[in-house]
Amino acid sequence: MADTHGLWKTTAAPIRPFPSLSSAVKAEVAIIGGGYGGLSAALRLAEIGVDVVLIEAEQIGFGGAGRNSGLVNAGLWVMPDEIVRRLGPSHGERLIDCLGQAPARVFDLIARHGIACEAERNGTLHCAVGAAGLAEIEERARQWAVRGITINRLAALETVARTGSPCFVGALEDRRAGTIQPLSYARGLATAASHAGARIFTASAARRLVRRDRAWCIATDWGSVSASWVLVAGESYSIGALAPQREAQLRLPFFNAATMPLGSEQRRTILPSQQALIDTRRLISAIRLDRAGRLIIGSVGALRGPGGPIHRAWARRMLAKVFPHIGPLQLETAWQGVIGMTGDHLPRIEWLGENMLAIGGYNGRGIAPGTAFGMLAADFIAGAVGEADLPLPIGQPERRRFRRWREAGLEFGAAAAHLADQRF
Ligand SMILES: Cc1cc2nc3c(=O)[nH]c(=O)nc-3n(C[C@H](O)[C@H](O)[C@H](O)COP(=O)(O)OP(=O)(O)OC[C@H]3O[C@@H](n4cnc5c(N)ncnc54)[C@H](O)[C@@H]3O)c2cc1C
Fold first, then answer.
1. For residue 233, which atom of ligand 1 is closest to its CA?
2. 234 lines ligand 1 (CB under 6 A)
3. What is the pTM of this model?
4. How many CB atoms lie within 10 A of CB 239?
5. Mean pLDDT across the chain, nearest whole number?
6. What is the atom index within ligand 1 of the atom nearest the CA of 360?
7. Within 124-164, where are the H helices?
8. Distance CA 352, CA 349 (A)
9. Chain-centre distance for alpha carbon 290
10. Pairing relationship of beta strands 171-174 and 152-154 according to DSSP bridges
11. C-alpha span between 356 and 343 (Å, rounded)
């Protein structure tokens, strides 16, 4: 997990190891994927007394759940009005409402199960760069306000005080949001699900899926699960029997880099309320602190090949520009993953077969939406909600054309953009 899970692997709360599947087991529901979607579904189902088995190809949090930047966001990158335009008023408003409440679901689970994951529920700052950035955050605030949600609009001076940076001309403070140690959160969900009665197996990739006698049989290397329902939550890390799932998404490389812990004087001035910062530039970046005071910066790009030195140098340069008063910072570690992007940047609930549901497509915002969708999928499978109550119509998987070429273009484009990025 060295340059894949980086800092999170080092600072994650320990977890009791789960066995790999080595026999034939039966369950009412089988879940494939040990990230937020699969784990929150397993927890929910186990809590209402459903017999559930979860299999994970690697370890808990191996996918995006153990690598991400840890920003628990409310909503998507897509603006609320645009979501309604794409989905229609009924599903659109329901999705906005579901995702707006999703951070509360995350922080409630953390509190209810005592998950030690550096949770900070102080809100996040969406910071405006230039006049165009200001117009964007004002429009975003307006669209939330129409829906009865107040997002605090910070003036330039207040933004300087909250961020410790002179680079932004204003910000939106979304108090619904916050930050976590993402791998610890995934591990905490797994422990809670296991305590509730879910059977969890790691190092157990689903290799084949066969429908037989009104049940699904999932074969792993050394065992099998048969269940009448299957929930697929492999997202952009789908392998084995789920490989076709990957065809539906573009995999956008994304990395994080963390500095050494800042000194107490530096910590007093930089993001003093432990709020994470994202900005309005096209090539997104996110900056936050961990509990030990390391600054973590994330952006688009892969660390392999020439991308490694380019993105690391950009991260150092960017931090020095955003926080000019603290001088050059050393990076302690950097790590990377991939984000699954859908064609319209909206998540998905899909039928893969009779009684086989897939959730995913969070477009880089999967902590809160993944948790909410996992819980919703569990409720749907248990019969507690119907299709009409879901925030999205249940669709069919699509194929992205020229996927590999476009992914290579994204990786190359990110390196070129970071090489050239001298702005602010
Ligand atoms: C670098 C980076 C930064 C990000 N930053 C943020 C952020 O700040 N905030 C945010 O909300 N989101 C962020 N994201 C996105 C977020 O991490 C994902 O949306 C989220 O992890 C999705 O959760 P999931 O459970 O659907 O999938 P994952 O966490 O990817 O889990 C899927 C799991 O399924 C397993 N699997 C796949 N195939 C099989 C199989 N055949 N058999 C068994 N198991 C299988 C995989 O091994 C994996 O563990 C970021 C992502 C990355 C990569």
1. 26
2. yes
3. 0.97
4. 15
5. 94
6. 26
7. 130-146, 156-163
8. 10
9. 17
10. antiparallel
11. 22
**Cβ within 8 Å of residue 423, ≥6 positions away:** 129, 281
Measure the CA–CA gap between 48 and 380, rounded to whole angstroms: 13
Distance CA 395, CA 125 (A): 34
Q: Name 371's Cβ contacts closer than 8 Å, sequence gap at least 6.
A: 36, 37, 40, 102, 105, 106, 109
Cβ of 33 below 6 Å from ligand 1:
yes
- With 0-12 / 13-18 / 19 or more C-beta atoms within 10 angstroms meaning exposed / middle / buried, residue 6 is buried
DSSP 388-405: GGSSS--B-----TTHHH
Nearest to 189 by CA among 298, 96, 110, 101: 110
Q: Is the CB of 118 under 6 A from ligand 1?
A: no
- Ligand 1 mutation target, pool 68, 174, 290, most atoms within 8 A of CB: 68
Nearest CA to ligand 1 atom 33: 33
Distance CA 39, CA 374 (A): 7
In angstroms, the CA 317 to CA 294 distance is: 16
Instruction: Give per-residue pLDDT as tens, 412-421.
Output: 888 888 988 8
Q: Is 125:275 a contact under the CB 8 Å cutoff? A: yes
Give the CA distances from residue 184 to residues 11, 116, 142, in Å, rounded to whole numbers and listed in that order: 8, 7, 35
pLDDT tens, residue by residue, 75-127: 888 999 999 999 999 999 999 999 999 999 999 999 999 999 999 999 999 99
Q: Where are the alpha helices (DSSP H) in 294-341?
A: 307-322
Question: Residue 41 Cα, ligand 1 centroid: separation in angstroms?
Answer: 14
Instruction: Answer whether 251 contacts ligand 1 (Cβ < 6 A).
Output: no
Residue given tokens 């009104």 in the structure block = 214
Report CA(383)–ligand 1 centroid distance (Å).
26
CA–CA gap between residue 230 and residue 42 (Å, rounded): 11
User: Which of 9, 237, 250, 352 to mutate to test ligand 1, by most ligand atoms within 8 A of the CB atom?
Assistant: 237
